[in-house]
Write a structure and sequence with these properties.
ten-stranded antiparallel beta sheet, two-stranded antiparallel sheet, about 250 residues
Length: about 250
């Protein structure tokens, strides 16, 4: 019995060591959210956050929806995002081929642009939902907004395409070397490695891959889940930085 007890202690000890080692090397480590990675990345560049945005879209069914059906879908969206009622503006468009409603609303510094569109096809129809949220001067609410949007699609048993982006600014014009240094800091903070890049006198842009982020897209058969861009605007004498995942979904 004593020898068996000692053997069991030895096995338990070895298992404990294995768990510790695997955690140290990342096998037991949970990956952080996309939004937390973007926040960490923008903070490493010392940029002032000007805006953060999130975009989600997906086909929700294979039918042509009536005005009443689309209104019910819009009510479900409103119940999730809870904007200020006084800001709600819904624009409707209907004809033989398209049935569409677009919501414009806000609450505090959050602005919503959500469209539900149904299109007639030879087989009947297809319906889509497209959601865009922007938050002024802040990035801390990105994850909570993503969770709201995801819940709508989860309740419909569909998986949306989602992208997030944080936009930062610097006063004045940064040199090309300074821009490259900022981009390097942004990648290093989340252990990302450059996949593709573009650099000229007007724009610095790279696509990268970080193992800290779960999702990715393929670009030229290579995994990409982060895009960083920087450029100077003479219009307002500021240098802008965009950090998006999996790609930047706003104009830059």
């Amino acid at each position: 019995m004593r020898n068996r007890y000692i053997a069991l202690l030895g096995i338990t000890f070895l298992l404990t060591i294995a768990i510790i080692v695997s955690s140290s090397y990342g096998f037991g480590r949970q990956k952080v959210s996309v939004e937390d990675s973007l926040i960490k990345s923008i903070e490493s560049t010392k940029a002032k956050v000007m805006e953060s945005t999130i975009s989600a879209w997906s086909k929700i069914n294979d039918s042509f929806m009536t005005e009443e059906q689309i209104s019910k879908e819009m009510d479900a969206v409103l119940a999730l995002i809870k904007p200020d009622k006084s800001t709600i503006n819904i624009v409707k468009e209907y004809n033989e081929l398209i049935s569409k409603q677009t919501l414009y609303a806000s609450t505090g510094s959050k602005y919503y642009n959500i469209a539900i569109e149904s299109v007639k096809t030879k087989k009947g129809g297809e319906s889509y939902v497209m959601m865009d949220v922007s938050i002024d001067n802040d990035s801390t609410n990105l994850l909570s907004e993503r969770q709201k949007l995801e819940k709508y699609f989860t309740d419909k048993s569909v998986k949306p395409k989602i992208s997030s982006c944080i936009i930062g600014i610097y006063d004045g014009k940064l040199t090309e070397n300074e821009m490259r240094s900022k981009i390097a800091d942004a990648m290093s903070s989340v252990k990302a490695k450059e996949v593709e890049g573009l650099s000229n006198e007007n724009l610095n842009s790279i696509s990268a891959f970080s193992g800290n982020i779960n999702s990715f897209v393929l670009s030229n058969n290579k995994k990409v889940n982060m895009q960083i861009a920087m450029r100077y605007s003479s219009y307002d004498d500021k240098t802008y930085i965009w950090i998006g995942s999996p790609l930047i979904h706003v104009e830059y």
